[in-house]
């Protein structure tokens, strides 16, 4: 075995030893940690056990005190109960003695009270009978009859008449109610008619107001149209005057007008067409005359020019 192999083997052993040491250290630390946790848990358990023991001792002491108190209370209540029973027995005996002793006096008092009650009842009945007799006497005096049967017959007859009158009054009351209902219905209808009439009057007043406004507007428009018409008539009159002046300036023939309208030669809307036709005719004549005159003048000028040339 060479030195190199020896060195390699030593290094391997050294590494293996280091691994074993590190592994041991890890296991040791885990064991120490586990031991520490176990100690902590044991201390906690010891503290809880001590606390539970102390609480147990405290509750045992309280339970013993309560038992002693309950026993003492039981003794006191038993004594009180015996004392009350003794008092009740004494009271019972005393009540029995007093009841036996005062029985005769009580019976005597009751007999006196019963006698007084009977006398009072008899007096009340006598008073009631007296009242009935007085009432019967008044009825006999009122009816002027001593026979009770006849009085009863009269009463029954009068009662029947009263019942008939009562029914008649009920019928009248019923009819009166119906009449009141009809009157109420008629009053309601009358109020409705009044309301409708009032509404109609309001509508008519509104319509009249609208018509008045429209009439005023129409009057204003008519007035404006009248003013426009007046201006138009003035313009038309001025136009007619101008036409008549043109008619006179052109010295138109009045004979056709006199033949158609007579001696009234004033121009108006009815005969303006005649004046216009005569003016048109006169203008045509004047144009023709002017054309003929111009033609003759032109011919004379040409003749003069020809003579001058020759």
Automatic annotation (TrEMBL):
Residues 169-235 form a coiled coil. Residues 22-262 form the ODAD1 central coiled coil region domain. It comes from the Eukaryota. Keywords: Coiled coil. InterPro entries: ODA-DC/CCD, ODAD1_CC. It holds the Pfam family ODAD1_CC. The keyword Nucleus does not apply. This is ODAD1 central coiled coil region domain-containing protein.
């Amino acid at each position: 075995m060479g030195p190199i192999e020896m060195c390699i083997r030593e290094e391997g052993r050294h590494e293996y030893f280091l691994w074993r040491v590190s592994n041991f250290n890890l296991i040791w630390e885990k064991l120490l940690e586990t031991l520490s946790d176990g100690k902590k848990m044991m201390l906690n358990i010891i503290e809880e056990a001590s606390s539970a023991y102390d609480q147990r001792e405290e509750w045992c002491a309280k339970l013993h005190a309560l038992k002693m108190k309950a026993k003492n209370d039981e003794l006191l209540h038993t004594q009180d109960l015996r004392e009350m029973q003794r008092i009740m027995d004494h009271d019972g005996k005393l009540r029995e003695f007093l009841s036996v002793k005062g029985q005769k006096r009580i019976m005597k008092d009751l007999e006196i009270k019963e006698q007084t009650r009977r006398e009072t009842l008899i007096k009340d009945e006598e008073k009631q009978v007296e009242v009935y007799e007085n009432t019967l006497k008044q009825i006999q005096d009122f009816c002027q009859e001593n026979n009770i049967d006849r009085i009863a017959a009269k009463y029954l007859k009068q009662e029947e008449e009263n019942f008939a009158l009562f029914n008649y009054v009920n019928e009248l009351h019923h009819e009166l109610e119906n009449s009141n209902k009809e009157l109420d219905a008629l009053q309601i209808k009358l109020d409705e008619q009044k309301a409708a009439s009032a509404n109609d009057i309001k509508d008519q007043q509104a319509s009249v107001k609208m018509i008045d406004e429209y009439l005023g507007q129409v009057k204003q428009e008519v007035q404006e149209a009248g003013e426009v018409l007046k201006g138009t008539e003035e313009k038309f009159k001025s136009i007619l005057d101008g036409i008549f002046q043109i008619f006179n300036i052109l010295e138109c023939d009045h004979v056709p007008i006199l033949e158609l309208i007579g001696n009234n030669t004033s121009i108006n809307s009815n005969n303006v067409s005649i004046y216009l036709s005569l003016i048109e005719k006169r203008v045509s004549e004047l144009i023709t005359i002017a054309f003929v005159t111009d033609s003759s003048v032109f011919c004379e000028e040409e003749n003069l020019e020809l003579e001058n040339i020759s």
